[in-house]
Amino acid sequence: MNALASPGFRRAIRERLAPLCYHEGEVNRCPQCQNKGWHVGRVTAECSHCDHPLPLAQATITGAPAEQDAAHQ
Ligand SMILES: [Zn+2]
Fold this sequence. Notes:
binds zinc ion, alpha+beta, three-stranded antiparallel beta sheet, elongated
């Protein structure tokens, strides 16, 4: 069971978090404090100033297809 694939989580991203994703290689400003420094993890990035978390844009895009490929083999 993948929590990232649940309908509720996808809806939450679409309605609230989609415009606020961390984009690797770009300047990402914290929505709370406008800080530009981040601690980047595997699926989220946390603001280095206030610890506000953002989902990684790449993780939400590339997560599902990789699992489908693994299931076919
Ligand atoms: Zn912040």
